[in-house]
Amino acid sequence: MKVATKDKFENIIESSDLVSRDLSWIKFNDRVFDQSKKEGRSILEKLKFLAITASNLDEFFMIRVGSLYNYLDYDKERVDYSGLREEPFKMKLLLECQDFHKKQQTHFVNNLLPEMKDSGFMLSNVKKLEPEEREYIKSYFIKAVYPMLTPMVFDGYRTFPILMNKLLIFGVVTLAPGDKKENRKLSFVQIPANIPRFFEIEREDLVIYVPIEEVIRENLVSLFRNVNIESVNLFRITRNGDFTLEESEDMDANFLEEVKRKLNERKTGRVVRIEIEEGYSKWMVSLLKERWNIQDDSIFKVEKSSMHDFTGLWQVVGNRRFKDKLPQVPHPVPPISYPQEGTDDVFQVLKGRDILLHHPYNNIDPILDLIEKAADDPNVMAIKMTIYRLAKDSRITKALLRAAEYGKHVSVLFEVKARFDEENNIREAKKLQKAGCFVIYGISNLKTHTKLLLIVKKDDNRVTRFVHLGTGNYNEDTARLYTDIGLLTTNETLANDVSEFFNVITGHSMPTTYQNLITAPRDMRNQLIEFIEQEAENSRNGLPSGIFIKVNSLEDSEIIYALYRASQSGVPVKLIIRGICCLRPGRVGLSENIEVLSIVGDFLEHSRIYHFHNNGETRTYAGSADMMVRSFDKRLESLFRVQDPVLEKQLMNILSFNLRDNVNAYRMLEDGSYVRKFPQADEDEFNVHKEFFDVKIEDVMKVKLI
Q1: Is 449 an annotated catalytic residue?
Q2: Active-site annotation holder among 449, 468, 611, 689
Q3: pLDDT bucket at 245, cuts 50 / 70 / 90
C-alpha cells in the first residue's frame, strides 16, 4: 500500500478557505491533551485529562471515522472542506490520528508513569509484586476472573466470533504438539466490561494498580492446556457507531424498535481501528486486516511499557483515597439576579423578575426546585419539557413521576437519539409513560436538542406560565462541570413563543413567526445571516458594528462565508469556539478582522451566546444551537433573546471575560493550528473558571464589548 507523508496534501488543504471539520477536531483534542501536560496540575488531574482525550478519540473513531467509512465502503462521493476526496482524506486523517496516539503514549510513559509513586500509587505487572501479593492475585483470578473468561477459537469448523467494541481482547495463537505451523489456530479471549480495569493492592503508603490484562496474561495458560502457545497479543477494536434512522412510511409506529435495532448494530459495525501491543503476531494481524478490510494506517501500536485504553484511568482518578489530591471546585455562588437563592419561593420571585443562571458558578438547584415544587403544588396544572440527557439518578424524573401521580398533565419529549444515551433515555421515558405522562420519543427525522421547560400554574383565577430556556441539559451531574446559561422567566412574549414551540413538537402546528425565539430547522441560519449582514451594512455606512459569538462548534459554510463578508466590510468579529472551527481567521483579503479563541480548562465550555451590536440597539441571544449544518438542518433547536438590561449585560460580561482569559485561552491561527495565550508582561492571570465565582453586579453593569 502507499504510505502518506505528512506534507503530501498540505498544498491542497492550505489553499481552501475552510478548515476540515475532522482535522479541526484533532486540534481540539490536542488542546484537551495539553491540559495533561500543564504545569501546576496534579498527577491525578493529568491522568483525568489523558482519560478524557482517550474517550474523545474513541467516540471520534466510532462516529466521524465510522461515517467516513460509510462513504468509502459504499462508493459514495464526499469532498471534505480540506478539498480532499474520500481516500486521500482518510489517509491524511488517520496519519494525524497516529501522530496524536503516539503523543499520548510517549507522554504517559515518559512523564506520567514516573510521577505516580510520589503521589501514593503506581502501576505494576504481577511479576514485580511481593510473593504474598502474587498469591492474592492468583486467588482472585481463580475465583472471580477465570469463570468469566471464554476462549473462542476460529478455525474451519467454527465461525469467526463477534468481538465486542472497545473491549480488551487477547488474540492467542496456538499449535498442538507435533502439528505443522500451517495448522496453528487463533483463539480470542475477551475481558468482560464488568471486571474492574485494575486490581488494587493497598500497602501502607502506596496503592498498587495491576491492570486486569496482566492478571489474565499471567494465568492465561490455564485456558489453553496441553497446547503450545505461540504468541499472546493484546488488542482492542473500535467499530463504526455512526447510524442514521432511515425514514419509512411506518417509521412512527416502529420508531423505538428501529432505534433499538440500530443500537444493536453498533455492536457488530465494521471495524475502523485496531489498537494492539507491540511485538504482535504478523500472521494474526494479517488475518484480522483481511477479515475486517482495513489497512496499516488503522493499526495503532501500543508500547509494551504503556497501557491499553487510557479511559481505564478513571478508576485511579476516582479512588476516594486520593480525593484531596484533586482540586476542589468552589461552592456555587448566588446568581446576580437572584441573590436570595434558596430563601424565597421561586414562583413568587419569578412573578417579579427574570433570573439568569450561569452554571456551574450558579447552582442548578433553582431549576430542580422549580420542577419539584411544580410537581407538588396543587395549583400547577401542567408541566412540559424537552429532555436530551439526564443524570443517572435524576431528581427531574422523580418529580415528573410524582406530578403524574398527582394527576397533573405532564408532556415530555425524550430525545431517544441522544448519542450514547439512547438506552438510558428509552428506559426513563418508558417509566414516565407507564405513570401516565404524555411522552414523545423524539421526532423521526430530526433530533430535538433544544432545552425548554414550561410550567402552567393557576393562582386566584390567574394563569401564569413559568419558563426555563437553557443552553445545556437538565442534568444535575454535568451542571457541576459544564458552563451553561439558563433563563427563568414569566415573560409573556417568551411564554407564548415556548407554548407555540411545544405545539410544534407535540402536535401538528407550523406557527408563522416567533417574537423572541429563533428556531431550527426553519429560520435559524437565515436569521443569523441576516443579523451578520446588518452588521456589515452598518460598517459600510460608517456606523459602529461588532459580532461576538460563543459556541461549541462553527462548521456551517453559509455562516462562515457571511462572517468573511462581514470581515471584509470592516466588522470586528470575535469568536469564542471551544471545539471545531472550520473558519480561517486572519487570512489576508478574507478574514483579517476575525479573531478566534478557544477556552479549554477545568470546566467544559458549553454555553452558546450570540451578540450583535446593531448600532447600539443590541441583539443578544443564548440557546442550544451551535453553528453547524446539523444544528440548522437536522435538529430542533432554539435561541432565545435576552432583553432585560441587567441580564443582557451579564451575557455580554461572559463574552468579555472569555476574551480576557489568558490561562485557558488558545488563539487560532490561519492554518488551523492553535497557540496558547499567556499573560503579557503587564498583565495578571485572568482565569474565567475562577473569576466567575467572584463576579459582581458592578462589574457587569460596566461591561462594553465595543
Answers
A1: yes
A2: 449
A3: very low
